[in-house]
UniProtKB/TrEMBL annotation:
One GO MF term attached to the UniProt entry: peptidase activity
GO biological process annotation, one example: proteolysis
NCBIfam families found in the cross-reference section: proheadase_HK97
Name of the protein in question: Peptidase U35
Prohead serine protease domain boundaries: 9-165
Alphabetical list of InterPro entries matching this protein: Peptidase_S78_dom, Prohead_protease
């Protein structure tokens, strides 16, 4: 299932001889997002301050989380990341390569407008409230990569947690699902995303 998250990205119009610059916001604070997982939906929110102690010193910019391709940029040399009250802001200088020009052109035309990211949450970095069906992320240890993507979701961020959750959920019948939400909270709170 597709999981959508709104993020912003813009391409600066290059003048002759200038760089291919992208700016964006791959992580937004306090914006509830519905995650559609095979076992059901839940709401996820990244709280303001979750990135305050996160390691953002070695982050790559990719297209669609493709780690088999050369990164489009990397901190700190060709990409800058900064925290502000809204979340994580990004400014990247893309290479003057076919991939760099293609991505820059697609963002400039509006064909690509979303961003996603891969990250790690510490053991005590998230909580799940079964009553509201909401996972709240309060602490992120590290951001590994930011991606420009046609469908702004972040399936790689919770693959491990979702696999564990799916195994439990698949074994349960309807009356057992409320109890499963409590187990889900335990899994999410200790999972490394």
């Amino acid at each position: 299932m597709k999981e959508l998250r709104i993020a912003e990205i813009r391409a600066a119009t290059p003048s002759e001889g200038s760089s291919l610059i992208l700016t964006g916001r791959p992580i937004v604070y306090d914006q509830p997002t519905t995650i559609n997982a095979p076992f059901g939906e839940y709401i996820e929110v990244i709280k303001r301050g979750a990135l305050d102690k996160a390691d953002i010193t070695d982050v790559r910019l990719l297209y669609n989380h493709d780690m088999n391709k050369i990164p489009l940029a990397r901190t700190p040399k060709t990409m800058g990341l900064s925290l502000d009250s809204a979340g994580l802001a990004m400014r990247a200088e893309l290479p003057n390569t076919e991939d760099g020009r293609s991505v820059h052109t697609a963002v400039g035309r509006g064909d690509l407008s979303g961003m996603s990211f891969a990250f790690k949450v510490p053991k005590d970095g998230s909580q799940f409230d079964a009553k509201t069906n909401t996972r709240t992320i309060t602490k992120i240890d590290k951001v590994y990569e930011c991606s420009i993507t046609p469908f702004p979701a972040y399936p790689q961020t919770s693959v491990e947690a979702r696999s564990a959750i799916e195994n439990i959920w698949g074994k349960l019948k309807s009356p057992e699902r409320q109890a499963a939400k409590i187990k889900l909270n335990k899994i999410l709170s200790r999972s490394v995303l």
